[in-house]
Structures are given as structure tokens and as C-alpha cells.
Write a structure and sequence with these properties.
The chain has 258 residues and is an alpha/beta fold. Helix content is 38%, strand content 24%. Helix 6 links the parallel strand 7 and strand 8. Helix 3 crosses helix 4 and helix 3 packs parallel to helix 5. The radius of gyration is 18 Å and the shape is globular. Bound molecules: adenosine-5'-triphosphate. InterPro entries: AAA+_ATPase (IPR003593), ABC_transporter-like_ATP-bd (IPR003439), ABC_transporter-like_CS (IPR017871), P-loop_NTPase (IPR027417). It comes from Fibrella rubiginis. Keywords: ATP-binding, Nucleotide-binding, Transport.
């Protein structure tokens, strides 16, 4: 397992800025003053045990969940104060790759990929749509799957098609929720390489939520670890794990020794 070898150039531009974010469901205080930023061109990995609020954080970033308090600015837009139309516009620039790939089973791969484009971009010619589909499939290395049904694909292929579909709208920011969950180690490496390719070839800025430390190490320019409602550790992979903190060490040993 290698640390990410090639660091793409990152600008000093902040594309996501979160300050003092609080989210509670009744008595369950999930996020208790979260601060986080994402720089343009950066891959940021968010680690944390189940139920620590990683998905809640993503939902707040895309405006699907209103926080109790805090500031959330995405691509210069204040998400908390945005209305539905403004959020719809923002979501065109923020691609969300779901844990279960969320493909439509009754549509071919081509139709799945066309769907976000036809729905969101008007007046595209057939040739433009075909070119965009081919480009996205090429990016994920699955051009040959264009006429297949999702049920004919492996789990890893479905994940890649899910990512290709998210890429159709050329998002500036990618949010990956558990991209390698349930995949064998070799397929995981394919997905990790794809996430790095998306960063390098598309210049995307990404947040990758994962429990998979190999994934964290291979894709993360920076790693942030969520504990007790806050990011308790942030830095490179090696910096985050260079601590005697039992909670951090347990997380590490569970991944690599069990
Ligand atoms: N809509 C909701 N209503 C009530 N509680 C919720 C809601 N959404 C999330 N929660 C609670 O918030 C906490 C964090 O959930 P979240 O899904 O963000 O965890 P997670 O870190 O993504 O976990 P996992 O790694 O298992 O996916 C959990 O206790 C969950 O039950």
C-alpha cells in the first residue's frame, strides 16, 4: 500500500468552508462545532466510525439538511441561506456519488449516463450527448459497457458507472460516499486510481468518505478524522495516525490487523 505518490497542484482557493457546524436530532448531538475546508484541486478524506455523522455532513454540504447553526459556504455560496432554486443550481456543480451507485436498473448504461444531462442541460444535440457519454465512460475505463444493463455489471463496474454518471455534468466538486465499500482489494485499487484520475484529469476537488484506510492512504492529500462530533485530527495520512490516542490507534489496527 502506497501513500499517494503524485500530488496535483492545488490552488489556495477554498471551495468549501465550514465553520462551527452544529447538527442534532433531538438529544442526539451529532456534529458539535465542526470546522472544515476543502481547497480547489484537493482530495480530502473524511474518516470516522459508523454513526459519527459523515453522511450528515455531506447532506449539509449539498443543502439536503439544514444545520442547527454554523456557516457552510460552497463555491462562494452560503448554503444555509440559499433557497431551493439556488441549491438546485449549486448541485449541478457538486457531484454526489452514492454508496449504492444508485443506477436505474431498467435503463442501459447509456441511458443512465444521459439522464442527468438531458434533465439539466437544454438544447444539446444527439452528437453532443453521445460525445459526453463516451467521454465519461472513457474516464472510468468502461466504454464497452455502454449498452449493458446495470444487472449485468459487477459491483466494481457499477461503482465506476455511478461515478461516470456523476461526471456527466462536469462537477467542480465530487463527494464520494464509501466508494470502495464491499469491493475486493484489487477492485478497490481500481476505484482509488479512478478517484485520483478524476482529480488529475478533471481538476475536481473531492471529499471522500470512507472506513477504508488503504483508500484513505492512496487518494487522500489530506485526511480528517471525525470523533465526538468534531474533527479531532487533520493532516496527511501519516500525520493523522502518528499519535498514541487510543481511538485513532484502534481505528488503524482494526483496518490492518483484523
Ligand atoms: N434524518 C435523521 N433523523 C434522525 N437521526 C438521524 C438522521 N440522519 C442521521 N441521523 C443520526 O445521526 C447520526 C450520524 O449518522 P450518519 O449517517 O451521518 O453516520 P455516518 O458517520 O455516515 O455512519 P456510517 O459510516 O455508518 O454510514 C446517527 O446517530 C444517525 O442515527
Amino acid at each position: 500500500m502506497n501513500n499517494k505518490s503524485k500530488k496535483p497542484a492545488q490552488s489556495a482557493e477554498t471551495v468549501i468552508e465550514i465553520e462551527n457546524l452544529h447538527v442534532a436530532f433531538g438529544d442526539n448531538e451529532v456534529l458539535k462545532g465542526v470546522d472544515l475546508s476543502l481547497q480547489r484541486g484537493e482530495n480530502l478524506v473524511v474518516l470516522g466510525r459508523s454513526g459519527t455523522g459523515k453522511s450528515v455532513l455531506i447532506k449539509v454540504i449539498v443543502g439536503l439538511l439544514k444545520p442547527d447553526s454554523g456557516r457552510v459556504v460552497v463555491l462562494g455560496q452560503d448554503v444555509v441561506d440559499s433557497n431551493t432554486t439556488e441549491l438546485d443550481q449549486l448541485r449541478l456543480k457538486v457531484g454526489f456519488s452514492f454508496q449504492n451507485s444508485a443506477l436505474y436498473d431498467s435503463m442501459t448504461v447509456r441511458e443512465n449516463l444521459e439522464f442527468p444531462l438531458v434533465r439539466n442541460v437544454r438544447n444539446l444535440s444527439r452528437a453532443e450527448i453521445d460525445r459526453a457519454v463516451e467521454e465519461a465512460l472513457d474516464d472510468v475505463g468502461l466504454k464497452q459497457a455502454i449498452n449493458q444493463m446495470p444487472s449485468e455489471l459487477s459491483g466494481g463496474q457499477r461503482k465506476r458507472i455511478g461515478i461516470a454518471r456523476t461526471l456527466m455534468l462536469k462537477p467542480e466538486i465530487m463527494l464520494y460516499d464509501e466508494p470502495t465499500a464491499g469491493l475486493d482489494p484489487i477492485t478497490c485499487t481500481d476505484i482509488n486510481n479512478l478517484i485520483n484520475d478524476v482529480q488529475e484529469r478533471r481538476g475536481a476537488s473531492s471529499i471522500i468518505i470512507t472506513h477504508d484506510l488503504t483508500c484513505a492512504k492512496e487518494v487522500g492529500d489530506r485526511v480528517a478524522m471525525l470523533f465526538d462530533g468534531q474533527f479531532q485530527r487533520q493532516g496527511t495520512f501519516d500525520e493523522v495516525f502518528a499519535t498514541d490516542d487510543k481511538r485513532v490507534q484502534q481505528f488503524y489496527h482494526y483496518n490492518f490487523t483484523e
